[in-house]
Write a structure and sequence with these properties.
Oligomer: single chain
Number of strands: 7
Largest sheet: 7 strands, mixed
Number of helices: 4
Number of domains: 1
Distance between the termini: 42 Å
Helix content: 10-25%
Structural class: alpha/beta
Length: 216
């Protein structure tokens, strides 16, 4: 996929596939959730609350060699659908920009934030920290509004904790305890896909060491 970021530094952030940071709707939504949660949970303000130097926040399930506490952020799609019946629109460029045809879509989905810890108290401390961060702190919602990956709006009135459990064993220690809790909230937003043929840019000019005349 062509990286247009060098040519269009002010390209709208809701254009999916505009550069090397994301390649589609699911990728962009996933990166947005991980990025906002990681930055907030490991900020100085929230380190004071949960007491850890850093809590890993990733999109993958915790694997061998990692340690708890650990936070996994996943994106669950609800639905996406065309913004208009026509679906296809032309984006009018500003001076110096390239013209693009796009398809606009609206979407609805949910973020699932999973907490993995070794004790129940450790799990609940991090859960309370996340609830305060997600449900009360405007900076968390603002982080989604300012996300460079996708236009997305969280609905924190839907914040819930549908699942919690305890079990024996971790990926690296069969005798250690895994204490798990899941948090979930809904989001909605919009994204656009570029359509049509990609633009071709001049990358190099080849110069011959001989002048060719009319008689040659």
């Amino acid at each position: 996929m062509t990286d247009y970021s060098n040519y269009l530094p002010d390209y709208p952030k809701n254009i999916i596939g505009r550069g090397s940071h994301c390649v589609g709707y699911f990728t962009a939504a996933l990166r947005a959730g991980v990025d906002v949660t990681r930055k907030m949970l490991n900020s100085d303000a929230y380190k004071t609350v949960h007491g850890y130097d850093e809590i890993p926040v990733n999109m993958e399930y915790p694997q061998e060699g990692q340690h708890y506490p650990y936070v996994q952020v996943m994106y669950q799609n609800g639905k996406f659908y065309p913004y208009t019946l026509e679906e296809h629109v032309e984006r009018k460029p500003r001076l110096g920009e390239l013209s693009d045809d796009t398809n606009i879509y609206l979407f609805e989905g949910s973020y699932i934030v999973s907490i993995y810890a070794n004790t129940i108290l450790e799990r609940e401390t991090i859960a309370d920290c996340l609830i305060g961060m997600m449900g009360i702190d405007d900076d968390y919602r603002d982080g989604f509004y300012k996300s460079p990956y996708i236009n997305i709006t969280p609905n924190m009135h839907t914040l819930s904790s549908p699942t919690s459990n305890e079990s024996i064993g971790t990926p690296w220690d069969a005798d250690a305890m895994t204490c798990y809790r899941q948090l979930k909230f809904d989001v909605r937003g919009e994204f656009m896909y570029r359509v049509g043929n990609p633009v071709t840019f001049i990358e190099a000019i080849e110069v011959f060491d001989k002048i060719v005349g009319d008689d040659d």
